[in-house]
DNA sequence: CTGGATCCTTGAGGATACTG
DNA sequence: CAGTATCCTCAAGGATCCAG
């Protein structure tokens, strides 16, 4: 846990930014939300050029925070699907607003 | 401009995350919004232990993005006040939701 | 009081190759 | 296909001192 998280655990704004921190998390959440359910490789393709290491690390953190769910099917070749958890879905209003804000300001 | 910004300028979500990127920007915006108008030193105190270099760099970027306004009074000692611009105020719904989300999940 | 200037650290993120 | 394993870079961020 970083100083950032430790020192400001009492401020809701810090809490939110800690839960979804890093360069990619909001975008990953958005892509998963958009797709509903999405496979690892598809996600990777949409975020390209993200490194596998980066993507899998962020996914793990999001999973550890209970914001996304990882479903693994023991097939050959393997299949893994990601989706938002109930908890993760509580972020949808924020995701929607962020997306809309970008739309309106990006011209 | 980073690869992040360059490669994804077509996706609204990337646009938003680029406009308010970095570890501190959302929190700085929140603190300014909370205060309405706030002096440099007050802001620095609320974010402590943030480095002066970091704070002033982030403030400059936010100013360059037209999200905050910097008003300088030529007094001795100097006084500088920051506030949200019209543009910056369009982020308030997002800030409010982020704050609320933190409140509800931080127990 | 509001930063700028310097120097420095560190860890997030990336490139590439490899594996069950 | 869905990731690890390695190694590496670089720039955000920090500590400290200085200045108008």
TrEMBL record, chains A, B:
Keywords: DNA-binding, Transcription, Transcription regulation. InterPro entries: HTH_HxlR, WH-like_DNA-bd_sf, WH_DNA-bd_sf. The keyword Flavoprotein does not apply. Pfam families: HxlR. Residues 11-107 form the HTH hxlR-type domain. The keyword Repeat does not apply. Transmembrane segments: none annotated. GO terms for molecular function: DNA binding. It comes from the Bacteria. This is HxlR family transcriptional regulator. It comes from Lacrimispora xylanisolvens.
């Amino acid at each position: 846990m970083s100083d950032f998280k430790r020192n400001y655990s009492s401020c809701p704004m810090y809490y939110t930014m800690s839960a979804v921190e890093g360069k990619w998390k909001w975008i990953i959440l958005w892509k998963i939300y958009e797709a509903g359910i999405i496979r690892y490789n598809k996600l990777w393709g949409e975020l390209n050029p993200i490194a596998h290491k980066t993507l899998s690390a962020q996914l793990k953190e999001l999973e550890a925070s209970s914001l996304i769910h990882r479903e693994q099917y023991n097939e050959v070749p393997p299949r893994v699907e990601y989706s938002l958890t109930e908890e993760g879905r509580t972020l949808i209003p924020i995701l929607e607003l962020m997306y809309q804000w970008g739309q309106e300001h990006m011209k």
